[in-house]
């Protein structure tokens, strides 16, 4: 699902990622663990096509990043979903409209859209919120809407950057349960965090440790 060989990335002359090589198998659950400033967000932005590959080779869900041009980025993003810390739900749209958006973009038939939206709202316990505008929801609820929107299209790969950054312990634990559930349904999960506690919640996960742009070790 992910295959990186000798990937390095610099902002100007400052090398943020240094010679990274690793692989993630389809169906896996992987943490990218490291302190703030380690380069986690930069790596995820590369994998999602919002930064261009400078050095090395990388493929993401079958897309070769070295030959990825602007026109292919939307296709990559239909295969690979992201949930970032600053979850961007559309505040004036309802929960249901926010979740339906990626299906609307893909031209999924209305009846199927309805079915999937209802199902995902059940899983994420948002049924009672479906018709409310997102601006009225709590942070945790908005985060769940962002996750619902990211997984409602059954992405092959879910990239997530500090998804629990703004949540309390209990909600973080619940979110991790939800990620595990989607992982069991077949979505490959790649989750960046500086929070050790999250890693302990998924004992079967693989852990890549990033420090000052270098991959330190693999465990799990
Ligand atoms: N757009 C940018 N321009 C210059 N430096 C950046 C930029 N984005 C990130 N950095 C630097 O790259 C390093 C890694 O940042 P980041 O990938 O955000 O790490 P993390 O997500 O692990 O906290 C930091 O030192 C940060 O200041
Ligand atoms: Mg970051």
Quick recap of the structure?
By secondary structure, the chain is an alpha/beta fold. It has helices spanning 40-47, 73-79, 95-105, 110-123, 139-151, 169-184, 196-200, and strands spanning 2-11, 14-24, 29-33, 55-60, 63-64, 80-84, 157-161, 188-193, 206-211, 214-219.
Characterise the protein shown here.
There is one protein chain. With 220 residues, the protein is of the alpha/beta class. The chain has one domain: Rossmann fold, CATH 3.40.50. It is 34% helix and 28% strand. The protein contains 7 helices and 10 strands. Helix 3 packs across helix 4 and helix 3 packs parallel to helix 5. The two termini are 18 Å apart.
Determine and state the CATH class.
Alpha Beta
CA radius of gyration is: 17 Å
Reading the helices and strands in chain order gives: EEEHEEHEHHHEHEHEE
Overall pLDDT score: 92
- CATH-scheme architecture: 3-Layer(aba) Sandwich
Strand content is: 25-35%
Reported by name, the CATH topology is Rossmann fold
Number of domains: 1
If strands are numbered along the chain, what order do they take across the biggest sheet? 6-7-8-3-9-10
Shape: globular
* CATH 4th-level superfamily: P-loop containing nucleotide triphosphate hydrolases
- Percent of residues in helices comes to 25-40%
Ligand inventory reads:
adenosine-5'-diphosphate, magnesium ion
The tally of beta strands, per DSSP, is: 10
State the secondary-structure class: alpha/beta
Rounded to the nearest angstrom, the distance between the terminal CA atoms is: 18 Å
Given the structure, what is the number of helices? Answer: 7
